[in-house]
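Sample A.
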Amino acid sequence: MTPILTLDRPRVPGDLEKKMAERKYASLSLDLDNQWCYMKTNGDAGWESYPSYLDLIVPRILDYLRRRDLRITFFIIGQDADLTKNHSALRQIADAGHEIASHSFRHDPWLHLYSDAELTEEMERAEGALHRALGVKPRGFRGPGFSLSPALLSVLARRGYDFDASVLPNVLNPLARSYFFARSNLTKAEKEQRKALFGTYRDAFRPLKPFHWRMAGSELLEIPVTTMPFLRVPIHLSYVIFLGLLSPYVAQTSFRLFLRLADLTRTRPSILLHPLDFLGPDEVPEVMFFPAMRMRLERKMAIVDRVFDTLQQRYEIVTMGEHARKARQTPGLRAIAI
């Protein structure tokens, strides 16, 4: 963090003080999508019993972050927080000092189809479950499957959220959706319900930098998941690992290019992680349909290590809440009316 000047500390020379104040930062967040979420989105039977891998993956991720002395933001699903069997794993996250945000209650990637009343109920249930399980009131939100609508943004603003993080400005959205549908067990009706999965074509051209959604009588800060400046292709950790299937060199070079372009455009990266980034093949066979899940864990973690090494060498790593606070201090923050 930037040192705070006090009366009993020698004043830092002007140029150095300016550099310290302008230190580059990047936020890290993890969507804690559980096993049942992937099965549900894929149209697989058995998800209704809410099978969970949280007891396996949460300690692994927390140990990794502890060894790197990092605090990040976890977007947690209300349904998981509502189940007693998950409380031990989820409390480990809060006890480790990580920021807790909401990832909806039911993890439906079609929140854009919900009415105002349905959205209000969804937020209330998620907030209540997170408060009962972890004693926190979430101040940030990310829609499952990057689902978004004006009604959702209005509900979040009315309920006092500090930020939304549901925009993924990614031109590959239609291709990724088609690839996923081709490998899924979804019916035609279910595919129609999920037709905005991963975001719409319009979302692909949203700003990469934080901006305000402006609505009647209120505003809500949006922190997009950062994609490659100019090219607008995804560069979150799952995608870097997917590139690693081609070549570790391609994965590392692409990520370094992304950071150079982010610095060139003064974009403070907001990097997205998922539990599957830390899982090896055969650990959870039910999610083997997901890209890069056939990669050996040792090889996958080598890519993860290189990404984290690069990030920590270049940036101060902050939570999404801290990213939001810093973004609000940016002069001339853009506003988009809805």
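Sample B.
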Amino acid sequence: MRLTIGIAVTALTLTIGATPAVAAPPAYTFVDLGTLGGESSYASALNDRGEIVGSSQVADGTWHGFRWRKGKMTDLGELRPVGINNRGDIIGTTDTSAFLRRGKRLIDLGPGIYPVALNDRAQVIGVGATPLLWSAGKLRPLPLGSVSGINRAGHISGSIGSHAAVLRRGQVTDLGAAAFDRSNTYDLNDRGWVIGWHFSPTQYERGILWRAGRPTDVGTLGGDSTHLTAINNRGQILGTSHLADGTEHPVLWQSGHLIDLTTRGVDPNHDLADLNDRGQIAVSFRPVFGVSHAALYRLR
């Protein structure tokens, strides 16, 4: 593969120190997914069909993978899921290897890869000695330092050196950085929008959205930092942000506005996992001390 490196425009839309305007937020219904018969479970990923994968304890206390769909949790055995696409394909690991699960078939990705993400074409990115792409039964190295997401077109978000980067059709584009010359990515959507972070001048993490290579700081709830978790194909971004008093709340960024999701009933103590195109949010929460359950926030 021929490798070309380009440098993206590094102009930054500054919103540091400002509290963004608040758009009308959605309302949610909360669904506890339960467990496979044991005490705890947690969510890993969510697709646009509302299917959630994660891990759960069974009755004897051991951990199994699960797939939750339409109110039913299915035991996936030793496979510990990392991601699920809109076709229902699942990536995950066992104690010995990494796998792609298609229907009831397990495809061994090899012992030298930890899967990170997959797209709807069942292409899988992961990390081994170097970042890797698994496609149509073959593994090949990627010209990136790390990887975070892959979209339907096969574009891959990651990093090169200490900078966020994206790989498209064999070309790596350096997305640049701000203060302290460091940045990285978390994910990208099918429109090619990439989410990640820069440092602020005071060395706090700032959530960044790159569109066509141009970075936009998504702002905060009045505090110093914002951490982004997931982006969907509607351009909505899920994350957490600090208030002026230092507390952290879940947020949804859309159309230039950062929405405090606690105003619509999302618990600030719940751990965010994923966001789909229907606006549903997968989380893990603690019903009692020392216990975790996977759960879903869905729009009313």
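B remarks: Residues 1-23 have pLDDT under 50 and may be disordered. The CA atoms of residues 33 and 295 lie 5 Å apart.
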